[in-house]
Amino acid sequence: MSLTHLDNQGHARMVDVTDKAVTFREAVAEARVRMRPATLALIQQGGHPKGDVFAVARIAGIQAAKKTHELIPLCHPLLLTGVKVELMAEGEDCVRIEARCKLAGQTGVEMEALTAASIAALTIYDMCKAVDKDMTIEQVRLLEKAGGKSGHYRRATEDTP
Question: Active site at which residues (predicted)?
Fold first, then answer.
């Protein structure tokens, strides 16, 4: 069995995971949204005119994880058994988003975790752009994955702020 997105003629296709064993799989990804300190203060004080920014971003991230296969070509539709999106202030000008996805299945959940973190970050941007157009979305990256044939991966600590 070849795990490639190319068929024998070189055409794109979904990887066939039929013969892969079902194992527990988990992935953790993060993203950061940098903003003006006043914007973060507005979010934290609950004074944002569009409501609870963190709550909306959390739900958006969870929904995005469940729909990753509709957004990323050739991703498998997965029956996720757990999705958790956490948002926390980091310093006076940053929101850190951590997304954790898990399942028992034949393929990993890295793309689902990365999608959840990305969409949560984009939701924060969307909700806050009227007050802070200079926000940036940074460091969308995989932090850890477990399960499957390739085993465990954890980003080196010196690469994590």
Answer: 126
